[in-house]
Design a protein that fits this description.
The complex is a heterodimer of chains A (593) and B (149). Chain A has 593 residues and is α+β, with helices and mostly antiparallel strands. Chain A contains 19 helices and 28 strands. Chain A has three domains: 48 residues; 101 residues, Alpha-Beta Plaits; 336 residues, 3-Layer(aba) Sandwich (Beta-lactamase). In chain A, 35% of the residues lie in helices and 24% in strands. In chain A, α3 packs antiparallel against α4 and α11 packs parallel to α13. The chains are: A alpha+beta (593), B mainly alpha (149).
């Protein structure tokens, strides 16, 4: 018991002070927990005690049909600085090393580092570099430079670079460069896919990002969940065929001085796109120049996103419709006077001449516009003709799994601006527009016993749940099998007699060239043409359809001169790569082993 | 007897004080033990958390390294590079005339290429860590009492 008065006073004083302290502490606790500044304290607690992180899974890989990687994800690094850890010495060292390694002005970097970021509430900054248009972009470095910097950081004798850290981020790499670039599309810096496969399958490839809260005070002993991964894709593209197509196209473009061109190779039975070559080339590793918003610039993936008037290659569909409808047979005769009037518009042949009596084979061999206009207007009739075009998918999307597909333009008799003259011009591929993928899909029906299948570019989807193989989708049966065989035989004879430049020795191929005028605001361009060729083979059992298109060739305007040799060159490689024996070789004639 | 009364009062006060003091000391000791245990467990959890973070960082580094190797390998095996190397070795593309076709009964063509599954999808890592590191005292009490989930 305390008896001394002064001691008692002292004890009471201490007790009062401690009680006051305890009351103040509790008051503060209550204020923090329930007072008006709860959100402020909660936010501060959040910042101090945990970190919100967004985790994105690695983007899915893309392979060609044989497993060659076409698009893979690698790393690049942002250079970041912890503003509370950086010292005066390390600021200078960081600026010096980074400026020397990346050729960025020292003053620029040092200026960023010496700013009072802590006062601004910034505890971690990302170093940037100026661009030519006075913007600032984050500095990114590849793995090699990152390794050098990491070695610097680990070396005790190296200059003090405390506060420097490298923040990894994903980078898309296309090892084959521009090869199949238009098929692949590209991924921008934010990881978003555009055009081609990257654009069409962006959601699938990118997986799903998740946001996690990582406790730092105290550190939590918890494994963070993995974000749902993106799928890996195997394309139908065969890189050897792609290379063959690209080499043949490049050679032809240079020889003819054409402005642009495309080659598509498709399996008519399955709809698989085996190759899709485009000129000018698109390198997805450096796609920036393609983002210029200019109507004159070539489109990306023009096979699906660009339209054109197909010209004479379209005659195949008109003639197939006539045979299938039973209104004509290959041996039927037509006397070509060199002119026909349809809907008040006079139609002439490509040479302005009259070819006299011609069978339907002759009409196709000599590519007579007058004859085809006669077939459509006087034999098929308007509704039947357009009904067939509709069945062939003209004017409709094919549904190919590439971003940016357009439907083309086909005015039928129900269109308010349609005139009867359209019937005449449409019959030989004028006055309408198609995409190349539409045309090759339609012609594939002729190469596949009349069955038209949907073109597609992805062969296999490998996701977390397993492997999925897209099935062949039949779009329709526009013509009978018998008609398809008849047309194939006819077009093979046409190639053998008139299309010397498209003949592949030892193999029977069917095909048709086209030379289309280019429509402008003031009528058709008098100087430039689109030269094309579509062919398929071998005739007995067609394994491929090849469509060649050359825009504005200078050496010759004709498809039979400019585009047919490209078909020949590509077909010669295809028969080797696909292991197709010559037509004359029957299985029992081949060597037994 | 009356003389002993004040002494008895004093003894009672002393006993009470001793009891109070020993009780307080016991309480403090118990609290210290609990505090020590809490700190020890907290330190263990923080250590394990740190270990997890290091492993996650290491895993990310290895994945980046793998991706880099994949990129290098893909670069070395592109069609263009193989073509260049084949040409340098004196090879040229075969033409149809170079090829002799054979019929082999029962020939089975190679199986189509199947892409690897996405890396992070082989198993669900949630729950791979022992619950000992994540269980709270309330969780433990609920489990012990057989209530809750």
């Amino acid at each position: 018991m305390i008896t001394d008065r002064s001691t008692r006073k002292r004890v009471i004083l201490v007790a009062v002070v401690m009680t006051a302290y305890a009351v103040a502490l509790n008051y503060q606790l209550v204020r923090v927990q329930f007072g008006p500044y709860v959100p402020v304290f909660a936010a501060r607690s959040q910042v101090m005690g945990s970190r919100i992180e967004k985790i994105a899974p690695a983007r899915g890989l893309i392979f060609d049909r044989d497993g060659q990687p076409l698009a893979i994800s690698s790393s690049m690094y942002y250079i970041e600085v912890e503003t509370r850890q950086v010292t005066d010495g390390s600021k200078e060292a960081i600026a010096l090393v980074v400026s020397k390694m990346l050729d960025i002005p020292f003053e620029d970097l040092y200026g960023q580092l010496t700013k009072d970021w802590v006062a601004l509430g910034q505890y971690r900054i990302r170093l940037t570099r100026p661009t030519v248009d006075q913007e600032r972009w984050p500095i990114t470095i590849d793995q090699t430079v990152a390794d050098v910097l990491n070695n610097f950081l680990a070396d005790s004798e190296a200059p003090d670079m405390s506060g420097l850290s490298l923040e990894p981020t994903s980078r898309r790499i296309y090892p084959s460069g521009s090869m199949a670039g238009h098929v692949l599309g590209f991924v921008n810096q934010e990881g978003k896919g555009f055009f081609g496969v990257e654009g069409y399958y962006d959601d699938w490839l990118s997986g799903k990002s998740i946001t996690i809260e990582r406790a730092t005070i105290p550190i939590e002993a918890r494994l963070q969940p993995d974000p749902p991964a993106g799928v890996n894709l195997v394309l139908t593209i065969d890189m050897e065929m792609q290379q063959a197509a690209e080499m043949a196209l490049e050679k032809a473009i240079k020889a003819s001085k054409a402005e642009s061109g495309e080659v598509i190779v498709m399996d008519p039975k399955t709809g698989e796109i085996l190759a899709m070559a485009v000129w000018p080339l698109l390198d997805p590793n450096s796609y920036e120049s393609w983002l210029v918003d200019d109507e004159e610039e070539p489109v990306i993936t023009p096979a699906v996103a660009g339209t054109y008037e197909p010209g004479s290659t379209f005659k195949i569909l008109t003639m197939a419709a006539a045979f299938d409808n039973g209104v004509l047979a290959p041996e039927d005769e037509y006397i070509d006077t060199g002119e026909i009037e349809v809907g008040g518009v006079k139609i002439n042949n490509w040479d302005g001449g009259a070819w006299g009596p011609q069978t339907m084979l002759g009409c196709m061999q000599h590519s007579l516009n007058v004859c085809l206009a006669y077939v459509a207007s006087e034999k098929l009739g308007t509704s039947t003709f357009y009904s067939y075009l509709n069945s062939f998918g003209i004017g409709h999307l094919t549904g190919i799994d590439l971003a940016g597909e357009v439907a083309g333009n086909l005015r039928t008799q129900r269109h308010p601006e349609w005139t009867e003259a359209d019937l005449g011009t449409n019959s030989f591929g004028q006055g309408l527009s198609v995409t190349q993928i539409q045309l090759i899909t339609a012609v594939s029906a002729i190469a596949n016993d009349g069955i038209m299948v949907q073109p597609h570019i992805v062969r296999e989807v490998v996701g977390p749940q397993g492997v999925y193989w897209p099935k062949t989708t039949v779009l329709g049966r526009p013509i009978k099998a018998e008609t398809a065989h008849k047309m194939t035989e006819m077009m093979a004879q046409s190639v053998e007699t008139e299309g010397r430049l498209s003949i592949v020795d030892g193999y029977r191929m069917a095909g048709k060239s086209g030379t289309a005028q280019i429509p402008t605001e003031f009528g058709y361009d008098q100087r430039w043409t689109i030269a094309s060729f579509i062919g398929w083979g071998p005739v007995d059992d067609p394994r491929f359809v090849v469509l060649v298109r050359m825009d504005k060739p200078q050496s010759s305007p004709w498809g039979s001169v400019v585009a047919a040799p490209v078909f020949q060159e590509v077909a010669e490689r295809l028969v080797v790569l696909m292991g197709i024996p010559p037509s004359a070789v029957e299985p029992d004639q081949a060597s037994e082993k | 007897m009356n003389r002993n009364r004040p002494h008895a009062f004093k003894q009672t006060q002393l006993r009470t004080r001793v009891r109070l003091t020993s009780g307080s000391v016991l309480l403090i000791v118990v609290l210290m033990i609990l505090g020590g245990m809490y700190l020890a467990i907290g330190a263990n959890v923080a250590g394990a958390g740190r270990q997890v973070m290091l492993l996650e960082t290491r895993r990310a580094e290895l994945q980046r390294s793998n991706a880099e190797f994949t990129a290098k390998l893909a670069d070395e095996t592109t069609i263009d590079k193989l073509w260049e190397r084949a040409s340098a070795l004196g090879f040229r593309p075969a033409t149809p005339d170079d090829i002799e076709y054979l019929v082999i009964d029962g020939y089975i063509p190679p199986a189509p290429f199947v892409a690897p599954r996405p890396l992070t999808s082989y198993f669900n890592r949630q729950g791979a860590l022992s619950p000992a590191y994540t269980e709270t005292m309330v969780d433990w009490a609920e489990r012990w009492l057989g209530i809750g989930n």
